[in-house]
Amino acid sequence: MAIAAIRLRHQQRRRKAIERFQRNHRAEPLLRRLSQIADQTLKKLFARAALPEECAVCAVGGYGRKELYPESDLDILILLPSTPTPSMAAGVEQLIASLWDTGLKAAHAVRTIAQCVSEARTDITTQTSLLDARWVCGSTPLVNELRQQLHDALNPQAFFLAKRAEMRQRHLRYQGTAYALEPNCKESPGALRDLQVLFWVAKAAGLGDTWSDIAHSGLLDDSELRAIKRVSTAFMRLRVELHLLCERREDRLLFDLQPRLATLYGFQDTDGRLASEVLMQRYYWAARVVSQLNLIFMQELEEHLLPAPNALPQFLDNDFEILNHRLHLREPELLPQQPALLFRSFLHLQQQPQLQGMTASTLRAIWHHRRLIDERFRSQPKHRQLFIQILQQPRGVLHALRLMTMLNILPRYLPPFRRIVGQMQHDLFHTYTVDQHTLMVVRNLRRFTMADHANEHPLAAELATDFQDYWVLYIAALFHDIAKGRGGNHSELGAEDALLFCHEHGLTEEQTTLVVFLVREHLQMSLVAQKRDIYDPAVVQEFASHLPNMHTLDALYMLTIADIKGTNPNIWNTWKAKLLDDLYHLTHKALRHQNTLPAGSFLAQRKQAAQNQLLERGIALEAVQRFWSVLDTDYFLRHDSEDIIWHSHELCPIWEQANFAYASVHALGNDHLHQVMVYAPDRSDLFMQLCQFFDQNGLGIQDARIYTTQHHWALDTFVIEVPAETAQQASFAQRLKHSLEHWLQQTPTTEEPEPTDYIAPYEAQARAFPITPTFELSLHGNHLWKLTIVTSDRKGLLYSLAKVFVSNGINLKSAKIMTLGLRVEDSFLLYSEHLQHQTHFKNFERQLAETL
Questions:
Q1: Which helix (H) or strand (E) holds 816?
Q2: pLDDT, tens digit, for every residue of 17-38?
Q3: pLDDT for 596 beyond 90
Q4: Which of 307, 384, 770, 822 has the fewest beta carbons closer than 10 A?
Q5: Which residues lie closer than 8 Å to 42 by C-beta, 6 or more apart?
Q6: Residues 397 and 391 sit within 8 Å (Cβ to Cβ)
Q7: Count of C-beta atoms within a 10 Å radius of residue 599
Q8: CA dist., res. 210 & res. 222, Å (int)
Q9: Alpha helical stretches, state H, 113-256
């Protein structure tokens, strides 16, 4: 048969098989059928190539297992009986050329048996691929001989150790989590590859050539076999859908693919959730089952292949012992009669630091008996007491909660928690599912108590040391986002759940009050610090008025830091740390002096502290007083002592003689943030010009304080984010100062930022899950207007807004910039004598809408 005919026949069969799948969505029959079609085509091409009969073609890898995905390569081994003769070489070349001519994407290797065995001994990837070798055409005895020699050379123990090490390295490449935003359904933790590793190791150990064979060997029971087949089928379909959707080999659930996949699966958006979030939750649930199976059976296989010396078990109590450094439940069959053993196992794990985990049989027993945790179990006082004890332990709290989540114990004990397992949030700044974010918050709270991490957050570490009943904060962490996705105010709903939990678990009235307050108000400290002017005593007093005592302030401060850092590690920086620290200290002082100090006293103390520092630095009192005479009360309200000292130290010697723009730049902490002060003759387009400068130099504005002195000079302060490679340059601050001063002396331009084809990963997420831009404009005083916007961040956003302000004759009085990943929530205080006119107001609103 001619190549063209073979190619056409191959394509027709593939197309029919795929069309059948698109009707019934059964992935496994499709993979088998595609493998059979490839087999048939290979046989025809082998016959045409006139290879000697003693040669053979084997399918290896996924193709060898009859799992050929629509866009995967055809992994084949052309097996030769000896070093190739000229006729063999010619036949091999003809076969490979015909594969390409037929349109088969083949990944081929040409080897003798000796070469295969030699490579398998030194390369675990080759050995694994050959483990799945399957005869397709040619010499059957040659393939049988290959299998026999590979079997004889295989060391099951060494194979297990190599595959486990390889798996751990692969997990590290994917940050060790199954809950990535764009997981790889083949390679990520909890994905197909983890199941395949179990299969390969079991097969190498001689436990069977199929999952059913492995189950019959005693490694799996019927329910475990069903679980493996169920999740394997689910991942197979997902991978097939990805290949067909992209028309290429694509195994990642990319942001732009998630909504399209959700449609294929029949999910729909609801008021509370996107269809893509439902899809991803199903994915994470399946990935967790794979992770559970992988955890249990990799340990089971280790105990089977690498049995430890027969050491005497160490008695713990009537139910538990330590066996080979692992916790062992003596009689798992007693679990239905004594379900408290479920929680006691985790408690022992925490209380015995020498333990290296649990035995496979114990893990298996806990997982199999997870359904014992029902309403009756949850209502038992002894079980509630055990759960509280787990939270109260001085070590191992996070590890216990993670393992309880992995084995589906925690989600069953806290039914509201079960609803957030695997729940994704496409809000452009959360990088974890809600359940994993919750455990990250617990982790961060734990770190405040550990000496090794004390330098990360010194104040939080100091507060944690003396905090009474610190474990209560873990309860607040577990409940702070537990109502996400239900609709309504998740903080209020979560507080209701927390109140019920506290009452049922016997917490004191004081402990209950604290937990409920923290859950209900867990966002407030972050919002006040990042959205409001915390150096205004009125703002601090208002915030303090909602806090019942300093103990609550301490708790809210620690939970806020743990929450922000557990949301997205990339949004935490020195500036956010400073804002929260300053708000804590100012609120602490306000609570200490509540109803004893007039509001003006705080301002007087701030000015006195700054003045003392300036005098110590050699600035004359008269010079300070002259400079401060052009600064009104608003300036001292909106700047802390450090900024007042910085501004005054720089400007006292020059401000009266200055007839040009002046800038000062210094690094802020250890990350890539810098503070920039600009002192220049005020004009309406100054903010626009500054935004343009920062944009063109790749500097992101994190915060802006706009102030005009009484003699009409601008005194503006910015916090900017600098690219890492730039920030590390020793001369950066000085070069930025000179560039900025030179820029401000030039004639302003209105050039737009240059477009770029590069799409950052978070920008791809923003395009797939866009935020509908919103803004609110309200009167805030005499000709003062407050503008708040929520939108996706983009290059040039502030510059575009500033142009709208200038074109409408609006003066910017202040700006609060809050960037959360790619989500911005900015607020501006604007001065305009025209906005009260309806026509001008509507025109301004229209331009804002167009800009956003």
A1: strand 811-816
A2: 999 999 999 999 999 999 999 9
A3: no
A4: 307
A5: 57, 76, 136, 137
A6: yes
A7: 13
A8: 14
A9: 113-122, 124-131, 140-153, 156-173, 192-204, 211-216, 222-246
